[in-house]
Amino acid sequence: MSTVLLTITPTQIDKHRELLCHWLTANGIAPEDVSADLPLTIEQTADHSVICYHELQRSSTGHKLVDPDNRNRVWTVRRTVDQQVLIPGVVVSQVDVTALGDLGASYITVYRMPASTDG
């Protein structure tokens, strides 16, 4: 079981593309294989946090495959990777959750994406 700590929406992926690409690479994920049309999440498991993303499925020649269940979409598979490197510039704080019941930890980490600098 996991708890979602941060959801990075497709709009945020677009606004923070360079930052997120560096962060994904630092965590061993190839940014070009991550769907920008679906959200990324950081989730807390019992003892660590993981990055959850949708990996684009490709043919042996590198072309994106069509989803067999929906011919109008690219085929993706949900993947998780242990988060080794935090997102630079993201506000991170600790929240005490001992009053929230049995989450397997006494605190969780809360993430907030930086405010957009666009007008």
Keywords:
single chain, mainly beta, two-stranded antiparallel sheet, about 15% helix
Structural description of this entry:
There is one protein chain. It contains two helices and eight strands; from the N terminus they run E-H-H-E-E-E-E-E-E-E. The strands form three sheets. It has a four-stranded antiparallel β-sheet with strand order 1-2-3-6. Strand 4 (66-67) and strand 5 form a beta hairpin. It is mainly β. The mean pLDDT is 82. The longest helix is centred in the N-terminal third of the chain and has 10 residues, at 17-26.
Topology, pairings included?
Blueprint: E1 3-8, H1 10-15, H2 17-26, E2 40-44, E3 49-56, E4 66-67, E5 70-74, E6 76-82, E7 91-96, E8 107-112
Antiparallel strand pairs: 1-2, 2-3, 3-6, 4-5, 7-8
Output the strand order for the largest sheet: 1-2-3-6
| Helix/sheet category | mainly beta
Order of helices and strands: EHHEEEEEEE
What fraction, in percent, of the residue positions are helical?
A: 10-25%
Give the strand tally.
Answer: 8
Radius of gyration: 16 Å
Structural shape:
globular
The mean pLDDT is 82
In short:
This protein is mainly beta. It has two helices and eight strands; from the N terminus they run E-H-H-E-E-E-E-E-E-E.
